Structures are given as structure tokens and as C-alpha cells.
Amino acid sequence: AKKPIRVAVTGAAGNIGYALLFRIASGQMLGADQPVILQLLEIPVEGPQKALKGVAMELEDCAFPLLQDMVLTGDADVAFKDANWCLLVGSKPRGPGMERADLLKDNGKIFIAQGQSIDKVAADDARVAVVGNPCNTNVMIAASQAKRLPADRFTAMVRLDENRGRAQLAQKAGVSINEVSDLFIYGNHSPTMFADYTHAKIGGKAAADVINDRAWLENDYLPTVGKRGAAIIEARGLSSAASAANALIDHVHDLVTPGAIHSVAVKSEGRYGFDPNVWAGMPVKTTAPGAYEVITSYEMDDFAKSKIKITNDELVSERDTVKDMLS
Ligand code: NAX
Q: Does the beta carbon of 68 sit less than 6 angstroms from any atom of ligand 1?
């Protein structure tokens, strides 16, 4: 039997947590023959801890054969102890009248503490995936605390945006989702992201030729993908949870599946014209379980470059806002 993989999840009693944990425990993230131990972190106050207990009771009631053990805690050092994957979902939502700068700084504090804890206690092969918003800046803050773990272990999630972008192209072209490929997300997980339809393919042909409506692509498609999160909140009265959990399952699954090509926010190192020190969405190819290389071969036209500049500028300004928090 395989050795269990320890998966730490923060914000485990939240909305995304509720849609995520059952899928991890059933084997959809790491494989149908891979035992897991869930190490679940919630803020150390009564309400969330009690809710976490309830979620754990339901996990027990599923009798998942792969779920070997669970740890429920309010202490980051316990949650991340020997963890192989650290899924950082929990963060503070933006309150009424709260400025974006305050949101960045409040959440920054969480990711300083969690970055330090992961670097101190997680497994040597630990990998980190940040979902909690603003996820690109939060992952940068967490990674800046790490002295032991290299920066390429820290990723943030833009996979929900990729999945949304593929679905919208398939719908417009009237084809099945499987026909849409090579659609990657560049930059920030925010409305400035660039869903690069210029290299996307539908049925193996250039998506822009198949759709043949540049105005729709520029003026409808991009804003629809970029603002989809807000549209879900408007319709549902709650933010995306099941689709976000699904995207995180895809993000990690593809990072442990050699050959998978997918959008991940990684430290840019200057690729595609991004500032070298921001975490930006871009295409990566998984080379070995947990290891990836950035695909750098896409040539951007002037339109794509102008879109990348906008989202890069936003990432740089987020970094400036939290610069005192970077270690
Ligand atoms: P919820 O508010 O339902 O759940 C968050 C949970 O995190 C709460 O239970 C809270 O108690 C807990 N928490 C807060 N601070 C914590 C800390 N320091 N340590 C441990 N737990 C902590 O939010 P949910 O809908 O689950 O969303 C979670 C995060 O995902 C939000 O920041 C949200 O903005 C972000 N999202 C990111 C997406 C992406 O594509 N990257 C898409 C979906 C989602 O909007």
C-alpha cells in the first residue's frame, strides 16, 4: 500500500472547504489508490471550530477507504506538521466599506504567519497552493517567509479562470468542452487577468478563426471571464464554492500528473514581460509529480502584450501595498 499523503487545508469549515474535502478524501485529487491524511485548520474560536467538527463528522460518515486520519486544529504548526500539500483556502473576506489596501494588509498578516509555519514544520517536499484572495499577492507573501522551501513550491490558483474561459469558448462555438485547448490565464486572479484566446484552439484550429468575431472576443468574452466571480455572487448570493473547489482539485491533480499543461500562478522570473518578483498566471507543464516548467514559447501580439501589461501593473501595485510585509 502507498504511504499516505498529508494534505493540510486552511479555512476548512468554509464554503470552499465543504465542497473540497470530500473530493480529496475520495481520491479525486491525488489518485484513487492514494491514501490521504487531512490536517484541517480553522481560526481558533468556538464557532468555526465547532463547524469544523461537524464537517469532520460528515467525512467520517462517508467511510472513505482512502481517508486514513484527520487532524482538526486551530494551530497552524499542528495543521502544517509534515504536510506534503498545504492548501491555503482560508482568508478574511472583504467587509463593507473596506478598502482594497486594507484587505491586502489584513490577509497579508495571515500569509506571513502561515508561510513561516509551513517553512518551519511542513515536509521537505511540501508544496503550497493558495486560493484565499488576493491569492497572487498572498502566495508571494507566504513564499517570502520561506527560508527552507524554494519559491517554485508556492503556487496560486488561476485554474477556475481557465475552466471558465474554456467553458465560455465552447459555449460560443457550440462545441463540447473537450474541443477547446490551449487556453491559458495570464496575470492576476482579478478582472484584469488575460484569458489568452489568441493562442486557444477549438477542434485543433485557432479559436479566433473558428469564432470569427474579434469584437466579441475582446469586448464580451474577456470581461465575462474576468468578472465571472462577481456574476456568480450576483446570481447565487454566495461566492463560487463548488467550482472553486473543483478548480483546486484540477490544479493539484495536474501538478502531480506528468505531461499536464495548465494555468498556474507562479513566480514570474520575468517571463512574458511580467515583473520578475510577482506571482502571475501562465502556462506550465508538469514534468514529474510536483515539478513543472513554465511554457515560454507563446509569442504575444501587441494586443496580448497590452493586456499583460495591465494585469502586471496591478500585481506590481499590490506588491507595493504590502512591501513592508515581504521578508
Ligand atoms: P468562507 O468565508 O466561506 O470560508 C473561509 C474560511 O476560512 C472561514 O471558515 C474562516 O473561518 C477561515 N479562516 C479565515 N482566516 C483563517 C485563518 N487565518 N486560518 C484558518 N482559517 C481561516 O470563504 P470561501 O467561500 O470558502 O472562500 C475562501 C477564499 O477563497 C476567499 O478568500 C475567496 O476570495 C477565495 N476564492 C478564490 C478563488 C480563486 O480562484 N483563487 C475563487 C473562489 C474564491 O472566491
A: no
